[in-house]
Amino acid sequence: MKCRVCREPAVLDIRRHNAAFCRDHFVKHCAEQVRRAIKDHDMIGAGERVVVAVSGGKDSLALWDLLVDLGYRPDGLYLGLGIGEYSEASGHAARAFAQDRGLKLHEVDLATDFGYDIPRAAAATHRAPCGACGLSKRHLFNAVAVEHGYDVVATGHNLDDEAAVLLGNVLRWETGYLGRQHPVLPATPGFARKVKPLYRLGERETAAYCVLRGLDYQVEECPMAEGNRHLGFKEVLDGLEDRSPGAKAAFVFGFVDRAHEYFTDDAGEEREGLRQCVVCGSPTTSGVCAFCRLRERVGTRAEHSQ
Ligand code: AMP
Ligand code: FES
Ligand code: ZN
Ligand code: ZN
After folding, report:
1. Which atom of ligand 1 is nearest to the CA of 79?
2. Exposed, middle or buried, 110 (CB in 10 Å: 0-12/13-18/19+)?
3. Is this prediction's pTM over 0.70?
4. DSSP for residue 65
5. From atom 3 of ligand 2, which residue's Cα is the shortest distance away?
6. What tens digit of pLDDT does each residue of 11-64 get?
7. Does 77 contact ligand 1 (Cβ within 6 A)?
């Protein structure tokens, strides 16, 4: 196996590109995919301030590293979810990366700052933890960005993540979600722009990138995500990819380039009629936003059980 570019021995082959790369050209390939994602979708304008949501996992550390490499000056944001040792190791990886490179890392801790954590939220809501987790992340990534004047929030969602979410949305024809599933969600009043610069790279690629760049990432997956329906979709998609390499990329890129536009009206309707949450001031369609309702619910339950 030889590098497609320089014909030196390759370290990794990517079947969907029908190509193999040596270490240096693989790193360049990753940077090129991110550069292209940013350019094709106008993700980051000149002089704009970017904050990267960093979980300490392979995707978000690779993203932070790649954005620095491409010349942006992104700060990081780590959210402590309170999921035992998993969260401790995640925070450690994010902090170590920031310290080594002298980068700024904002930290928000659900328990310290908001009086609940994900295990308690899951118990109080009797729902899968990922619901409360996703809601807390969406709210706080945006709240921190708005508070500190960032123009853009970047997350490490990769091609596999996007393919799994897309399959879930298509299977149920969730037209509102399909309208909002895109590598870029434009800024609207009260919301910073959200971007996914890794959507062109698979998780095998982001993991290999971290290993080849010597980035120490949290290898464990979240222990509370077991049984998460997206994991099932990922298995199905891996099966498809195995039989026909390139299937995931065709599915996601085709949607982004040719189908997403048909759903944007469905998403737009939900964004109209927004007002301010009476508790925290965030944009919401109801009087009290979902994040504040969650806090209230978990807080009330915790008091009752004491
Ligand atoms: P996940 O929802 O775990 O698939 O993560 C998707 C993206 O959200 C990651 O690539 C990160 O950019 C971000 N993210 C996930 N967990 C955290 C966290 N605890 N703190 C900050 N960002 C996170
Ligand atoms: Fe959110 Fe596991 S990371 S429930
Ligand atoms: Zn090479
Ligand atoms: Zn609120």
Report:
1. 20
2. buried
3. yes
4. H
5. 222
6. 999 999 999 999 999 999 999 999 999 999 999 999 999 999 999 999 999 999
7. yes
